[in-house]
């Protein structure tokens, strides 16, 4: 009479048993069973993280360089005015639309180059704050809708559909016309219009996570819902959210610059790239630098953030493929 040998226990089974034993010993370490985004490369032995995959892409390096150059200009420019040019952003230096100096004068005789290097900080700051507001609201509502489900999910997503049906620029124009072209109004309106789009992405990403084993284990140990959302679900949807944040930042830059161009964003005599385009467009054929410089800066910033967002998307997709 022969006996059947016990089945061979592979490395994966031993690892699974070890995880279960650790969970039994310490229920608070449930998150350790979650999939890790950092793995070892089989050939080089280096840690293969989302960051390393992101930086390995050529377009990521180009995007970081372009974005960093424009951001540094926007951040450091106001500090060097008037030391770098000898003028302030509101000082009269020559007759309107004269080619004197580095980039000539604008419609009111102010130095174009001085206003250019001093006019990017407000645009960048407003775009970042608007994106942050939209990201916080969108992630909050999207995760809550996906995890809770039922009538609350339907209520949140149908409300999102109503906001999505209104064109973003039209909604911003209406709100700014009623409340006035103030900075906080501009930031809040752009952020609110981003929230429904971010919520849809957050909900989709959360639905792909909530059925994982480590989420079930956390629920089994009665982990508080808020802690489960912030410590278990949120870290595992950072990839899609980072991509969406990059895209929303690009749209924020374009929206704020467009509203300033229409006269509903930054107000004179503020030095602002979008406002500079509106002020100097009437003399584009005579003195083009007042338009070309801010247009080039906004275009480069948009291209750079798009390249970064696309590279993050590719790095996150490679991470998901590797885990599977």
Describe the overall structure.
The chain is mainly alpha-helical and 324 residues long. It has one domain: MetI-like fold. It has 13 helices and two strands. The chain has helices at 11-25, 50-55, 58-76, 112-117, 121-148, 150-164, 168-179, 183-207, 213-220, 225-233, 238-261, 273-280, 289-323; strands at residues 39-40, 47-48. Strand 1 (39-40) and strand 2 form a beta hairpin. Helix 6 (150-164) packs across helix 8 and helix 11 (238-261) packs parallel to helix 12 (273-280). The radius of gyration is 26 Å and the shape is elongated. Residues 1-39 and 41-45 have low confidence and may be disordered. Pfam families: BPD_transp_1 (PF00528). Residues 1-41 are annotated as: Disordered. It is found in: Cell membrane. It is a multi-pass membrane protein.
Please supply descriptive tags for the structure shown above.
324 residues, mainly alpha, MetI-like fold, two-stranded antiparallel ribbon, 13 helices, 2 strands, 65% helix, elongated, disordered N terminus, transmembrane helix, MetI-like, MetI-like_sf, cell membrane
**Biggest pleated-sheet summary:** 2 strands, antiparallel
- Cα separation of the termini: 43 Å
Helix content: 55-70%
Structural class: mainly alpha
Our Rg estimate from Cα atoms comes to 26 Å
Specify the CATH architecture: Orthogonal Bundle
Q: What is the overall pLDDT average?
A: 82
Could you spell the SSE succession in H and E letters?
HEEHHHHHHHHHHHH
Shape: elongated
């Amino acid at each position: 009479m022969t006996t059947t040998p016990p089945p061979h226990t592979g490395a994966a089974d031993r690892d699974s048993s070890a995880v279960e034993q650790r969970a039994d010993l310490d229920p608070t370490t449930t998150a350790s069973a979650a999939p890790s985004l950092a793995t070892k490369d089989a050939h080089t032995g280096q840690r293969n993280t989302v960051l390393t995959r992101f930086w390995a892409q050529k377009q990521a390096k180009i995007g970081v360089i372009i974005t960093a150059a424009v951001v540094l200009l926007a951040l450091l420019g106001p500090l060097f005015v008037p030391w770098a040019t000898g003028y302030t952003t509101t000082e009269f230096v020559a007759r309107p639309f004269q080619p004197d100096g580095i980039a000539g004068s604008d419609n009111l005789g102010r130095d174009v180059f001085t206003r250019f290097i001093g006019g990017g900080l407000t645009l960048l700051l407003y775009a970042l704050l608007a994106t942050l507001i939209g990201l916080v609201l969108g992630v909050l509502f999207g995760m809550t809708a996906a995890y809770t489900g039922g009538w609350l999910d339907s209520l949140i997503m149908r409300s999102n559909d109503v906001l999505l049906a209104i064109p973003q620029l039209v909604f911003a124009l209406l709100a700014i016309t009623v409340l006035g072209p103030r900075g906080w109004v501009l930031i809040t309106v752009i952020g609110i219009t981003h929230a429904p789009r971010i919520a849809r992405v957050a909900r989709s990403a959360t639905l792909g996570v909530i059925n994982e084993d480590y989420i079930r284990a956390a629920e089994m140990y009665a982990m508080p819902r808020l802690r489960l959302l912030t410590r278990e679900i949120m870290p595992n949807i950072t990839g899609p959210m980072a991509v969406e944040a990059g895209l929303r930042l690009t749209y924020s830059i374009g929206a704020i610059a467009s509203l300033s161009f229409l006269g509903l964003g930054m107000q004179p005599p503020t030095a602002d790239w979008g406002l500079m385009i509106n002020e100097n467009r009437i003399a584009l054929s005579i003195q083009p630098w007042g338009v070309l410089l801010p247009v080039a800066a906004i275009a480069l910033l948009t291209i750079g953030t798009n390249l970064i967002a696309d590279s993050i998307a590719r790095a996150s997709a490679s991470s998901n493929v590797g885990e599977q």
